[in-house]
Structure formats: structure tokens, C-alpha cells
């Protein structure tokens, strides 16, 4: 009963946050809406007894990635006013095209959800081992070792790129 | 249903106690700082000036609420709330005593006991950073923005070293659940095998709460008052509450991870916990009275070039030791 109430609140907040991201004009408000969505997703993970996943998602996404977004937004866009109506570059019918593609994506996701085989990984009260630290660690270092190492290399490339691009031009 | 009521009651008690501790801490800090500086400190209101914090609170309530014209109202009013909420919520997983038995139930002495206790605290303190950066930006003031960005950069840099120092304890205990970590320290506190982690944690603990010697973002002669320059009255009080309650939370975490939590002979466990946390709070005030503050670039260099490699080495050494054992 309580979990249903919590689920509905978190789900509605996640959708509200996502809508806020695409509708607000102020970039800081956009980032904050996305943080709201991230927190709601964290709550939804908690409802699935995936505590480690929930905490890591909040820690990494809402606590690090979005903070860096806010850094860039507040440093670079403070005082930048959005361009006036007649100067904005608009694609023809951009709202219509975006809405159409969104609808196609939604139908695809619905099709995937309906056709999926829903096997419960929750082994009773206590939640089994889905999303626990041990299962994460084991999977990450045995079955998914190659993607894990490649992700580390990708991050390293990004860091090196930032250092190179941000250096003073002589 | 009973669990929900128990959680709500524990939450209420914890929140009230934390706010009361904040009031007490302001008085303790002023008195102890004064004694370090050979002066009496507040001594007019109440015995030994204890009621000074009530007078300060009343004064702040009655101050004029100024909101800058160019400020983003919603975010401006939201920022101190975020700071304060994150500070109080982070305390939820710290156990201040062994489980007690009332109403025929075993009640753990923490609000929630998820088996990812430490990570929960890190997640919530990461969210607390938003209060700083949003407060700095929403004030529509260059000094506030710079102060807010400096504070935020400092905190997210030292979060890394703190997380790694704590990972050493996590490895040594084999669990992220704070109750398990306290239980494993029955014979030997983790400060002994994890002495390097403890020292790193001590430094990052002070940096995380923006306390001297790491308080350049709030220093008056640097950036006016950093992110809380434009905040008056109760909103400023909320920022201060957030700072002190953060201090209490990191002290509580240090006690739980390194000093054996509520273990101790003769006295009731909750009292032992209080004594250990009080020792860390005194350490905070002692540092403030003694050390000059670090210049910002040296602060960041220290966090990234010294603390992070040392913390990584500590984690590596602990991992090797645990694997070999």
C-alpha cells in the first residue's frame, strides 16, 4: 500500500521533471528539473530493492554530473539572455517533428515492454541479490569486464582532451 | 505500520536533537574560541552566556528579509532549504547506540538501516552541494557566484579523497552497513589498522564543511562572504545550521567508522557516542582557533595532488591486505 503511494509520487515527479527539462527557458531551472527526475528515479530503484543502484545513481548523476552541468551553466551563461523571438533560428515545424519522433519512441518502448518476459528477480522479502553490492561487483568484474575497462579508457581520453583543449594557446 | 511510526518518531527526535545541538554548538564555539584567544566570550545572557544563541536566533528572525531585485526568487529561496535538508537527512543512517527492545520489537538506533549506509551519506552530502552553488548563482552577485563556485569545487574535490579513505574501512569491515562496521570494531577500533585513512578523513572532513583552514570561500576579506553574502535573517541562519549540522554528521561518521561508534566500557553507549562526537567538534573549533587559512589554489592542489594519491594507495594497500588475509 505504502509502496504504491510512493511509486505514484515518484513516477509523477519523474515525468514532471522530464517535462520541465524541455519546457523551461532558464538553463538553471532545466538542470534542477533534471535533478528532480534523477532523484525520483533513485526512489523508484529503492522500491525495487536495488539500494546500491539507487544510491550510486544519486551520487554519480545528481551529485556529480549535474553539479558539473550547473558549473558550466552558471559560469558561462550567467547574464546571457535568450535571443528574441524574431532572431531565433527555428527549424520549420520543429515542435511537430520532435513530437512525432517522441511518439515513435514511445510506441517502440511500449512494444518492448508488452512483449517482454517479466521474470521477478526479487527472491522474497529482503529483495534477493538484485542490485546488491556483491552482485554488482561480481558482474562488473567477470561478465562485463571488457566494457568496464573500455569505459575507463574513454574517460581517460575525455580527461586528456579537456586538458589539451583547455590549455593556453601560445 | 509500526515500523513507519517508529521511523517517523526517530526522524523527529533526530531532527529536533540536531537543531538543538546546533544552538548549543554556536555557544560552545564562541566560548571555546574566546578562551583560546584569552577573552571571556559571551557571558551576559544566562549562566556563562548560554542563552546567547537564543538571543541570536530571535535577532535573526526579526531581521529584514531582503531579496535582491535581479535574483531568481524560486532558486534563491530554495537553496538554503536544500543545504539544511541534506545536512539533516545525512544523519539518518548513523547509529547512535545498540538496538533497544521496546514494545516487544527490536528497534535499531538509527532512522534507517539500509545495507548501503556509507554510500547513502555520500549521496546526500553530494546533494547538499546544490545549496552552495544555487545560492551563489541565485544571488545575482559576482562575489556570491565566485564564492559559491569555489566552495562547490572545493567540496567535490575533497569528496573524492574522503570516499577513498572511507573505502578502506569498507574493505576492512567487508560491508557498507554502519551497524556491521560498528560491530566489527568490538575488539579493535579501525583507527589503528586504518590510521592513514583516518588522517585523510580528518583533513577532508574539515574541507567538506568549509571550516578553517579551508574556509577561503567564506572569508570576509576574500569574497565578502561567498555564497551567503546576499542572505539575511532566517535564510542565512539556515545556511549556518546546515554548516554546523554537517559538522556533526561528519563527526558522527568519523566516530562510527574509526572510533568504534558507541562501544565503550561502563557508561551507556549513547553517552559514549556523544563524547566521541564532542571530541571531534572540539577538534574543529581547535583548528579554527589555531590555523591560518589555506590559499585557494594551494587548497585545490593539496586535495588533488596529495590527498587523492595517498587515499588511493591506502585503498590499494587495504584491498591487498584483505585479499591476502
Kindly describe this structure.
The complex is a heterodimer of chains A (170) and B (325). Chain A has 170 residues and is mainly alpha-helical. Chain A has 2 domains: 1-80, Four Helix Bundle (Hemerythrin (Met), subunit A) (Up-down Bundle), CATH 1.20.120.1200; 132-170. Chain A has helices at residues 2-23, 27-47, 51-76, 94-115, 133-141, 145-165. In chain A, helix 2 (27-47) runs antiparallel to helix 3 (51-76). The termini of chain A are far apart. With 325 residues, chain B is an all-alpha fold. Chain B has one domain. Helix content of chain B is 67%, strand content 2%. Chain B is built from 11 helices and 2 strands; from the N terminus they run αααββαααααααα. A two-stranded antiparallel sheet of chain B has the order 1-2. In chain B, helix 4 (117-138) runs antiparallel to helix 5, helix 5 (142-173) packs parallel to helix 11 (296-324) and helix 7 packs antiparallel against helix 11. The longest helix of chain B is centred in the first third of the chain and has 35 residues, at 2-36. The chains are: A mainly alpha (170), B mainly alpha (325). The A-B interface holds A 2, 26, 28-29, 32, 35, 39, 42, 51-52, 55-56, 58-59, 62-64, 67, 70-71, 74-75, 78, 132-133 and B 4, 72, 74-75, 114-116, 119-120, 122-123, 126-127, 129-130, 133-134, 136-138, 145, 148-149, 152-153, 156, 176.
